[in-house]
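Structure tokens please, single chain.
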Amino acid sequence: MDQQKLVVEEVPVGTHFDYPADQPVTTYEQDRRELLARYTRFAQERGRLLKSYLIRPAGSTDQLVVELFDATNAQLIVTCATLQRGGAGGAGVWYAMGTLADLARFPPSPARHVLVLPAEPDSDLDGLCALRSILPVWPGADGFTSHLESGRSPGPLGEPPL
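Here you go.
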């Protein structure tokens, strides 16, 4: 593979993960994958076209994984199985936000960044997401919910459909 050119390869949804394949899967990663699978089912039930990609940036040997991209709404989706900012091994909201920022530099270009969380964020985390133009979503009564469904005001960019 030519390392001087950007390579974007579409792969089947749910087959590649942003986690080293040569390491045992942690409890956090298991929880995150379960949350990702739940959100995937939720979006598919609503007729969304979902895709996954492997990306090799130009001049890099690193491979980046877009686990979930909602092509219907141009949403880059990243899951985080905790509401903690940091955690053991770097897992946490800060890592997920960094992943969103990193992946958004490459095609397909997202219109929105979505962070799937295990529960409703507190007002401080909600404010951090709003500052970074990230839409937090979390499991709710009918699948997943966001600010509009919970009665809170939307972030600075409004709300995309869930």
